[in-house]
Design brief:
Elements lengths: L21 H7 L12 H9 L2 H16 L8 H12 L1
Helix pairs in contact: 2-4, 3-4
């Protein structure tokens, strides 16, 4: 389980159609922080592949392959679809 910090929402800025003046921009620049990078592709894949639902499906697939007919393992398509939807 991951934890992320919640940032305070930015309130609308009252500026004219010309934008900020040089003085206003210079006054705001020290207050601005760089935004943290978004989640990496690897973390998104990891979060969507290693779930309890997928673990259960994989366990049943292993049991079915071990004790049953290999054609009964086609329900693994559900696992693939679940992962694909989560990543997309």
């Amino acid at each position: 389980m991951s934890t992320e910090t919640v940032e305070t929402p930015v309130l609308p800025v009252d500026t004219g159609p010309g934008g900020l003046t040089e003085a206003e921009a210079a006054a705001r620049r020290p207050r601005d922080r760089p935004r943290p990078p978004g989640r990496s592709y690897a973390s998104i894949v990891r979060a969507n592949v290693f779930t309890v639902f997928n673990l259960i499906l994989a366990a049943f697939a292993a049991l079915t392959l071990t004790f049953g007919d290999w054609r009964d393992v086609f329900f693994l398509a559900i696992l693939v679809v679940n992962v694909t939807i989560g990543i997309a």
